[in-house]
Specification:
The complex is a heterodimer. Helices cover about 25% and strands about 20% of the residues of chain A. Chain A has eleven helices and 22 strands. In chain A, the strands form six sheets. In chain A, strands 1, 4, 5, 7, 8 and 9 form a six-stranded mixed β-sheet that branches. Chain A has a four-stranded mixed β-sheet with strand order 6-3-2-10, with no helix packed on it. In chain A, helix 5 runs antiparallel to helix 10 and helix 8 runs antiparallel to helix 9. By secondary structure, chain B is mainly alpha-helical. Chain B has six helices and no strands. In chain B, helix 1 runs antiparallel to helix 3, helix 1 runs antiparallel to helix 6 and helix 2 packs antiparallel against helix 3. Chain B starts with a helix and ends in a 5-residue tail after the last helix. The chains are: A alpha+beta, B mainly alpha. At the A-B interface, loops of A face helix 1 and helix 6 of B. Chain A: Pfam families: Interfer-bind, Tissue_fac. Chain A: GO terms for molecular function: cytokine binding; interleukin-22 receptor activity; protein kinase binding; type I interferon receptor activity. Chain A: Belongs to the type II cytokine receptor family.
Chain lengths: ~525, ~180
């Protein structure tokens, strides 16, 4: 009975032990389930931080994420996950505050993930102090006979395994000159925090020096040297300006000061008189205004704009009938004058006084020539030189000139008055002066003009008839003295230009738009 | 005559003391260099890491507190540790695939260090005998017996050797700290 009890107790104890062991090992991560991949791991101190980096040799895996675990060899502890290196994309991890025991073996385990699935793991063994120390960043500034080497350290340098970095290695600044290496073992009794400047003095000017900085650990085979930085010490290379440059600047300043003071003195004594009265051509105050200024007022010249009016071809109605007949005529009808010339009117408009000097001068010549040639009655081309007369003035009170002007105004269709302002209504006539005579009425013909003017006045209601009332002497008439001046006037008309050739013949021909050659 | 002998004895003691002081300084330099060399050689004995056979061998805590030891005490401890490390690596390591040359270099470095230490320890053999029975030495011996038994139980497997190698490497920082006692 007692033996049965013992057997059952032992069996139960074994069972408990088995359960305990299975639970104990069951909770630990089963790292042995995954196949170990080959990884290249490096433990380095970069900028005073303990960095573990790895690289998967099997490129077919190409993991996207990594998770880092670690454990130690001295104790059978379960691997611990590194919090700041969980599911990372960069194949490196900062273990400065994670690995704190100096004398031990660390087993880093890197799990390789592709997406959400684990594709493998890497495991390695590192003795705690089996690391490389990368050199610090530095800058060099060269002077005449010395070089300033500024080492860039972080403001706060963390401890590695609870120790300062100088307990692991000494800082060395290597100076190379003509392949002769001279070491300046710093052995700084200070913390490597903040920037530090070391001066390499007693150097030879006009010489090229190369400097390299590195940490030298106990194992000299683990030295990592920084890239060499070289600088040439120029003879006059000093901080700031050289003495000669300073003297030059001072002398130049004195010369300028002397010059200015002499100028002021001469001016004060009156030896130099500075005038502000510039010639007009150098006066640019109103330069812009003068650019857009109106042209100087030219001579008072009346301008006459000849406006082409379409006239139907009509046979000359020799009927000198009453007004009713004339009223039926909607178009201009050339009227025969007493002299026998057939005149046709070219509508004129009194423009504002002298808008265009060149044009006005030319037109004035035309007007003058027209005036000179119009020594026969019947033709009328009055250059209105005066202002427009008051339309409400009674006709009898007006001067002949005013009345002529009135005729011009009245004969001008009001509905075209606005259109005449438009450039489209301006027509330039090319007239063969050999076939066209211009006649300008003088004052003696005012009596003859008056009826024509009255007619025009009476025909105010019919603008078309008014147009026809203004006639110009057209026809062949030779006036050599005036021909030259009239030739300056170029009247262009679309229809007449075609007819001018035909008008060159001596035969009477209807040139189309009322021009009749004689 | 008697006075001459006394004078010579005194001079010999002075010089020996001086010689020993100089030797301790030199011993410290040699020992520090030797410890680094041994660690480098052990690091060259690369083994695939394994987690299954890890064990806590319980390194004696007393030897971790180096401040209580005098120069000769430290020398005794260093000598004992080097001797036992030498003994561990004389076991079968064929399963590890280690380069035998590296192991032989390790043996040579360990031997050189022990020879330098024995030069000092032979001075006063009665003190050495007393140290052989001290508790620190007994605990240290027990520690290295555990290492030997572990290798034997694991049939000198590569994983067991990896664990032992890692444990041995933990000894050398302690040796380096004991070496610092030579400047006391």
């Amino acid at each position: 009975m007692f033996s049965n009890y013992n057997v059952s107790a032992i069996t139960l104890l074994n069972l408990y032990l088995m359960v305990y062991v299975s639970v104990l090992f069951g909770t630990s991560p089963t790292f042995s389930e995954y196949s170990d991949e080959s990884c290249t791991m490096n433990l380095t101190i970069q900028n005073f931080q303990l960095i573990l980096s790895w690289e998967v040799k099997n490129r077919s895996i190409q993991p996207t994420h990594y998770t880092l675990w670690y454990t130690i060899m001295s104790k059978p502890e379960d691997p611990k996950i590194v919090g700041n290196c969980t599911n990372i994309t960069k194949p490196s991890c900062d273990l400065t505050d994670v690995w704190e025991i100096m004398d031990d073996h660390y087993i880093p385990i890197v799990e390789l993930y592709k997406g959400n699935s684990m594709v493998g793991r890497c495991m390695n063994s590192f003795w705690a102090s089996d690391f490389y120390i990368e050199p610090p960043r530095f800058e060099i500034v060269g002077f005449l006979d010395h070089i300033n080497v500024t080492l860039e350290f972080p403001s706060v340098t963390p401890k590695i395994y609870g120790k300062e970095i100088q307990e692991y290695a000494s800082l060395v600044i290597e100076k190379q000159w003509d392949k002769i290496v001279k070491l300046n073992d710093l052995k700084l009794n200070r913390d490597f925090s903040g920037n530090f400047t070391y001066i390499l003095d007693n150097l030879i000017p006009n010489t090229n020096y190369c400097v390299s900085v590195y940490f030298e650990p106990l194992d000299v085979e683990k030295i990592i040297k920084s890239p060499i930085k070289c600088i040439f010490l120029q003879p006059d290379q000093e901080s700031g300006l050289s003495i000669s440059a300073k003297i030059g600047i001072i002398i130049t300043g004195w010369i300028v000061l002397f010059f200015i003071s002499s100028i002021l003195m001469l001016r004060r004594t009156g030896y130099i008189c500075l005038k502000n009265n510039f010639p007009k051509v150098l006066n640019f105050h109103n330069f812009l205004a003068s650019m857009f200024a109106e042209p100087p007022p030219s001579e008072a010249v009346d301008m006459l704009e000849i406006i082409h009016t379409n006239k139907k071809k009509k046979l000359w109605n020799y009927s000198y009938g009453d007004e009713s007949d004339s009223e039926e005529e909607e178009e201009e009808v050339p009227k025969a004058s007493a002299t026998g010339y057939t005149t046709h009117g070219l509508m004129g408009k009194h423009l504002s006084q002298a808008p265009d000097p060149s044009a006005s001068s030319q037109e004035s010549q035309c007007e003058d020539s027209a005036v000179e040639e119009s020594d026969e009655p019947g033709a009328e081309l009055e250059p209105p030189r005066e202002a427009r007369p008051d339309p409400w003035q009674p006709e009898s009170s007006r001067s002949p000139r005013e009345r002529r002007e009135r005729v011009l105004q009245d004969s001008y269709p009001r509905h075209n008055s606005s259109s005449t302002d438009e450039p489209g209504d301006k027509v330039i006539f090319n007239v063969n002066l050999n076939s066209v005579f211009l006649r300008v009425l003088d004052d003696e013909e005012t009596s003859e003009v008056l009826p024509l003017a009255e007619d025009t006045i009476d025909l105010e209601e019919d603008p078309h008839r008014i147009e026809s009332s203004l006639l110009m002497a057209s026809g062949e008439r030779t006036q050599p003295p005036h021909h030259s001046s009239s030739s300056q006037c170029l009247w262009t008309e679309e229809e007449s230009s075609d007819k001018t050739d035909s008008s060159g013949s001596d035969t009477d021909a209807d040139v189309g738009d009322g021009y009749i050659m004689r | 005559m008697t006075n001459g002998c006394i004078l010579q004895t005194l001079l010999l003691l002075c010089f020996s003391t001086t010689a020993l002081s100089i030797s301790y300084k030199a011993l410290r330099l040699y020992q520090s260099s030797g410890s680094v060399t041994c660690q480098e050689l052990l690091l060259q004995l690369n083994v695939r890491p394994c987690l299954e056979d890890r064990i806590n061998f319980k390194l004696p805590e007393k030897i971790k507190h180096q401040q209580q030891f005098k120069k000769k005490d430290a020398a005794f401890l260093i000598h004992e540790m080097l001797q036992n490390i030498f003994s561990v690596f004389t076991n079968d390591f064929s399963s590890t695939g280690w380069n035998k040359t590296i192991v032989e270099n390790l043996f040579g470095e360990l031997h050189k260090q022990m020879d330098r230490l024995e030069t000092i320890l032979k001075e006063k053999p009665e003190e050495s005998l007393a140290w052989r029975n001290s508790m620190a030495i007994l605990h240290l011996k027990s520690y290295y017996r555990r290492l030997q038994r572990y290798l034997k139980d694991k049939e000198y497997s590569s994983c067991a050797w990896m664990v032992v190698r890692a444990e041995i490497m933990r000894n050398f920082p302690i040796i380096s700290k004991l070496t610092d006692c030579f400047q006391n």
